[in-house]
Automatic annotation (TrEMBL):
Protein name: Branched-chain amino acid ABC transporter permease
Superkingdom of origin organism: Bacteria
Gene Ontology molecular functions: branched-chain amino acid transmembrane transporter activity
Organism: Halarcobacter ebronensis
Keywords: Cell membrane, Membrane, Transmembrane, Transmembrane helix
Amino acid sequence: MVENQIFTKHRLINLFIIVLAIWFTWFAQNFFDEYTVRVINNVAIFIILAVSYNLINGVTGQFSLEPNGFVAIGAYVTAILTVDAEGMLYQYDIEEPAQWILALQTDFFWALLIAGAFSALLALSLSFPVFRVRGDYLAIVTLGFGFIIRILAINSPSITNGSLGINDIPEYSNLYWTGGFAIFAVLAILNIIYSKYGRAMKAVRDDEDAAIAMGVNTFKIKTLAFTTSAFFEGIGGGLLAALLTSISPDLFTFFLTFQLLIIIVLGGLGSTTGAILGTIFVMAGLEWMRFLDEPMNIFGFQTEGTPGMRMVVFSLILIIVMLFAREGLMGKKELKDLFKKKKVNK
């Protein structure tokens, strides 16, 4: 009886959060100024990327450094499927676009799904060689994948327009798209985490050899996490392309992966709630601290603007947070865990 009451309480809390998120998406899109909406759009896209990256890196415990590669694939696939043939002929200066590229056209929704599916299929094919190694070796292999994708983008001018990138991408990404997919990504990943597959992922993270001894198909579980993560990273890349309206290989360097790694470590490896909080803290916080780069009046003293000062302050804040919260803001806990009553040992 008590367990049923707790379960019902958690469901009501989750439902309230979902309704609140939907209401905030609508309210922000209709009543916030353009700059604030753009910042929230960026935060929503990075929430998709962070919670999906956390699934493979935090929940499953596989030190993967591949997100920039899958985000790049999603961005380029979405751009190719949404920019019309005339626009491509106009901007492809290095080499004429391939004829099959010109024939590809679809709606934004289908472009996002195709981008996600393409990334997932590539992740599925990569999982066979990638998961033959573990630990630091896995990090090196996946890091190399990200570099390969970027080099292919530069050296395939008939498909990606090479180093010039693709411009004039239709600006579809409003808060209904980014916020909607962010809510969907969080719900989908939480459902995986709380399923038997999620429990198996945590078992792989805690002790892979013990999980194998207990009969867990670790390759299957790691592949599921890797493929799911790639799917949402592809969708996030497509939304990012439609928000920026211009992409190039320089946008998808290792810095993007490093940024996501900071977010999930700060929030707490293995916590989806932590990934969301880490995204808000990093992406929105960096925007809010832009005033530190500008001239300021402090107690009557006028200071000159110092470009990069916000990064110095932000780095100090990160150091302080990690010193006092070594497992991140949430550790491995989710939001529902905060409402659990602690058992008192008699």
